[in-house]
Amino acid sequence: MLVSLEGLDGSGKTTVWESLKETYPEAVFTREPTESWYGDAVSRSISADDADPLAELFLYTADHADHLSRVIRPALADGDLVISDRYSDSRYAYQGATLADSTIDDPVAYVQSIHEPFTRSPDLTIYLDIDPETAAERSGKTNKFEQSAYLKRVQQNYQRLIDATPGRFVQVDASQPPKQVLTDVREQLDAVL
Ligand SMILES: Nc1ncnc2c1ncn2[C@@H]1O[C@H](COP(=O)(O)OP(=O)(O)O)[C@@H](O)[C@H]1O
Ligand SMILES: Cc1cn([C@H]2C[C@H](O)[C@@H](COP(=O)(O)OP(=O)(O)O)O2)c(=O)[nH]c1=O
């Protein structure tokens, strides 16, 4: 089973993901961007304020393709539980926002369309729900994605994804104290496992 954790920067995904390692020690814990050289290229792009948004989309997508073939598909073939800190919805929501002012009519649909022939959808996506202002504060506004106006667009895109496939998502109130967020996530996971 493939479970993804999604949400705005600062929503607490990594905090939850780290804690889940104790709860599910047998699971495969992974993340996007990955730690491969494709992930390194993505990190360089994140730090570049003038990165071309379309070039950046393809860097993230290359990292995802490698992640799928090297980590996700083999782990699922072995019957493992896979828990990924960010996955394809991050591309739909974030690059859907960076491409909003481009010549592409419907960037979210476009980004989905380039994934559709090869990706593997998560079985469950836990969305850590937080308002963009709190998200920007918590994440420290250190990169170009961590600004509240941009995160507002990203949030709208996530909402669109949730509305399109409500059965795949569970939402957790990420404004709660960390302990309660973790309890809610564990409850949701235990219910499906
Ligand atoms: N529920 C929470 N309430 C308050 N602060 C939190 C909560 N969860 C995480 N944080 C803090 O917010 C910051 C970002 O958390 P992090 O887990 O890295 O988020 P993300 O991976 O979604 O960007 C960290 O300083 C973390 O300690
Ligand atoms: C995976 C992914 C991340 N991102 C962005 C979100 C983050 O701002 C940045 C790095 O992701 P990440 O390291 O998960 O940041 P955080 O822990 O703060 O959420 O890359 C995308 O724009 N598209 C993607 O496909």
UniProtKB/TrEMBL annotation:
This protein's record includes keyword Cell cycle: no
Domain Thymidylate kinase-like: residue ranges: 5-184
Keyword terms of this UniProt record: ATP-binding, Kinase, Nucleotide biosynthesis, Nucleotide-binding, Transferase
GO biological process terms on file: dTDP biosynthetic process; dTTP biosynthetic process; dUDP biosynthetic process
Classification via CDD domains: TMPK
NCBIfam families assigned to the protein according to its UniProt record, in alphabetical order: DTMP_kinase
Protein name: Probable thymidylate kinase
Natural source organism: Halonotius pteroides
Gene name as annotated: tmk
